[in-house]
Amino acid sequence: MIAPSGASYVWRKKKVAFTLPPMALPLLAAVTPKGVTVKLVDEAVEDVDPNLEVDLVGLSVMTANAPRAYALGDHFSLPGIKVVMGGIHPSSLPDESLQHADAVVIGEGEPLWSQVLEDAGKKPAQSALSKSFSRSP
After folding, report:
1. Separation of alpha carbons 54 and 33, rounded Å
2. Is 66 in contact with 86 (CB distance < 8 Å)?
3. What residue ranges in the chain does DSSP mark as E strands?
4. Which residues, listed in sequence order, are joined to residue 118 by a DSSP beta bridge?
5. Who contacts 26 (Cβ-Cβ below 8 Å, separation ≥6)?
6. So what's the pLDDT on residue 90?
């Protein structure tokens, strides 16, 4: 799971007294079923390995980092890795986000995370993976 950060982000890879870390990814890691390996990458702290060998990449996207998230989504989709995006930007613009991801989580991700993982694990990809997910009211 990746918290993207553009190269122009002022605090990128600097030692500072205080910054707010992304909270969505640790929360999703906490509700990930046992047996699923999770790696968290905050680009404000470390670079993303472009050669990650994974089955699924999750991106937590805000509008300010959407261009970087889209680039990462496009990059990891090329070798056939499934990409899911969540956050305020994909929740607001799911159709745009789906141009760079296999799935978009709209709204709170925690209640849907196990469904996302289940759908992502299906081979071949199920049609649900190409749709936006949203929690029922």
Report:
1. 16
2. no
3. 2-3, 41-42, 56-60, 82-86, 103-106, 132-134
4. none
5. 40
6. 93
CA atoms within 13 A on the CB side of 77: 18
The pLDDT of 23-37, averaged and rounded, is 91
Listed in sequence order, the residues at least 6 apart from 24 whose beta carbon sits closer than 8 Å to its beta carbon are 3, 60, 86, 87, 109
Nearest of 44, 58, 43, 48 to residue 1 by alpha carbon: 58
Summarize pLDDT for 75-132 with one digit per residue, the tens: 999 888 999 999 999 999 999 999 999 889 988 888 888 888 888 887 655 444 445 6
Which tens digits make up the pLDDT trace of 46-76?
889 999 999 999 999 999 899 999 999 999 9
Walk across the sheet containing 82-86 and list its strands. 41-42, 2-3, 56-60, 82-86, 103-106, 132-134
SS3 label, residue 42: strand
Residue with tokens 């071949």: 124
